[in-house]
Amino acid sequence: MPTPIRSSEITSHSHYLTRRDFIKTAGLLSIGSAVLAACGTPPTDAPQPRTQLAEATPTQIAKLDNFGTPPNTLEQISNYNNFFEFSTDKEEVAQLAQAFVTNPWQVEVGGLVNNPGTFGLEDLLNDYDQEERIYRLRCVEGWTMVIPWDGFPLHKLLSKVDPKSEAKYVKFITAMDRDVMPGTKSIFYQWPYQEALRIDEAMHDLTLLATGIYGQPLLPQNGAPIRLVVPWKYGYKSIKSIVKIELTAEKPKTLWTTAAPDEYGFFANVNPEVNHPRWTQTSERVIGSLGRVPTVKFNGYEEEVGALYAGMDLTVNY
Ligand code: MTE
Q1: Which amino acids bring their CB within 6 angstroms of ligand 1?
Q2: Cα–ligand 1 centroid distance for 162 (angstroms)
Q3: Looking at residue 318, what is its pLDDT?
Q4: Closest ligand 1 atom to Cα of 240
Q5: Structural domains in the chain?
Q6: What are the CA-CA distances from residue 53 to residues 18, 47, 201 (Å)?
Q7: What are the residue ranges in the chain where pLDDT is below 50?
Q8: Of all helices (H) and strands (E), which one includes residue 244?
């Protein structure tokens, strides 16, 4: 459980925006870290950026999320991971996951579809243009990173298999190999890891099947070779190392809604107005910085996805 947060530790959103504009301008002018350093040290009361600018390389500054924030380094992204099949210790996952074989790989897509199929990773890489998407990843535990993913929107694959009209949900299942995944010995969770989306969420253009980060294939700890990324939802929806996708009429059970339904809902949209029963969701710790920033509804993607939830009471843990 996180320690209580002092308000002085939190960067206000307006302060953050001021800083953000500075970063954005710097990015637009394609100024590298050396030139930025020459702009001088910010005054001591300056707001903290989501990631420390001093650490940002020119490559990072060339890539900004929709808040104008540069991404975390690959080092940070690949050494602080949640992949419970390996370990609940975020700093241990990278090493334990090295034994996980992710090539060759196939994804089976079936259920309520007209054209079910099994797709090899190579086919998915060749058949769909790999786009770069720079998204924030907000974990339900209260930390955040910016990650430059490569991949393709899930709707392209779903259109190919042609969902039947009865299909209302899309379920995803992670690979499971007990021999190399020591975490699956835990009887607290129902393995394999399973997640699901409503079909309109799955068809949304922001919903990505990621195959890489920073132009390199995904590392095992990040969910190689293919994973889901749903940037407006808490990170647990972004299921890793997918082997099966199934379209269903009924709302599927998920690992988290089964393990702790009062704490982890099915929708899991990022919402600073609804605290986790054991900790606040009003702010988040920025990985790679000492600071916290206010959490933004739908993780800052409300304009794109808010309409999906029109009429729903977002304070209810569905
Ligand atoms: N997928 C599987 N199969 N197993 C997991 O434990 N953890 C989830 C999600 N996907 C998880 C998973 C959680 S809680 C988060 S925050 C993100 O993966 C973390 O992704 P990252 O380690 O690439 O940052």
Answers
A1: 81-85, 137, 139, 174, 193, 222-223, 235-236, 238-241
A2: 28
A3: 79
A4: 1
A5: 7-309 (3.90.420.10)
A6: 14, 12, 34
A7: 1-8, 12-47, 51-53
A8: strand 242-248
